[in-house]
Fold these 2 entries.
Entry 1:
Amino acid sequence: MSYREGRFWQPDVTVATIVVEGGRLLMVEETVGGQLVINQPAGHLEPDESLLDAALRETLEETGWDVRLTAFVGAYQWKAPLQPDGSGGRHYLRFAFAAEPVRHHADRALDEGIVQALWMTPAELQARAPQHRGPLVWQVVADYLGGRRHSLDLVQHMVSPEPL
């Protein structure tokens, strides 16, 4: 596929949130393709939604936690490997944010596919690397732990004015 040939390619735009409290990370265990995997609270950007709003929404939907975004960690591009059954091969553009927990809604039902939200130390998360949903899970955490933090105002959401 080539843009010059008149075909348009679009990656899957996703957000992920690194929520930290007391040295532990808020993670989710989810079932994907029949496998139990570990990920940050993460998901796809919805139409007309800002990246910041998507990060807050996905974190609440997947963990039951309201959070306050504190920093932009980075943007990550990754192509999932093609699987023997022909699935996979999707391109992802992930925007990762750091956050602190504000309020837990313990009675809130979690998104479909989410088995549980859990708090893990970085060592516990790293020890379960074979279960990570993909390489971005640890890369984003490693960047955060390494001090990568950028101002949230680097992420802008422009809205077109309504026609008169």
Entry 2:
Amino acid sequence: MVSKNQIKFISGLQQKKQRLIHKMFVAEGVKVVQELLDADFELHQLYTTEDDFKSVNDSKKQIVSADDLKKISALTTASSCLAVFKIPEQKELYQSGLIVALDAIRDPGNLGTIIRLCDWFGIQQLICSNETVDVYNPKVVQATMGSISRVNVSYINLEDFISTTSLPVFGTFMNGENIYSTTLPKEGIIVMGNEANGISKEVENSIQHRLTIPRFGTLQKTESLNVATATAIILSEFRRVSL
């Protein structure tokens, strides 16, 4: 049975403030939990309705009822398991290869999807401005479907980093150069902007190359692409020309 204190503690981890205080986060679903376990994320406690996860020590595994799992789950339809992991120390940021930088991305689903895209396209480093949604937000963790274990996510002062890097910096704009006719390098930083406002003026000042994904529709009335969709197109093009 899940105690009231456990429910209070796990529910509290839905909030960034509590995650920072306890240095822990929540993951739900067999795939996500197993991916994190395989990546050696430090497990605090596992709650499961099945006698599974045989590799997990019994002292850190609690078999609960489906009703109890609903009480601690943040999902509309609870999965069969929920785990609390310790937040790892931020890894060292190294400047090589292709790096994706996010300027104040606020939607958890967008961040989670972009992390999956980085994993798919072999982008090992994702840089986030301090205004970007927390990577350990439960909705972000869920949206990554385990890719959070394979992409190094760093939170930094993006303006300072962009202005001092030796790598070429590319930004996505409505009035940039057509990405399909641009010569793209194998190394560089790709900046993706906020869902509503795009790339901030402070960051824009240090961007050397402006790129755009052209519209092909006859009416040309679509204002913009979803940032995760745009990231997929941009990364696909960078990888295609580097083959």
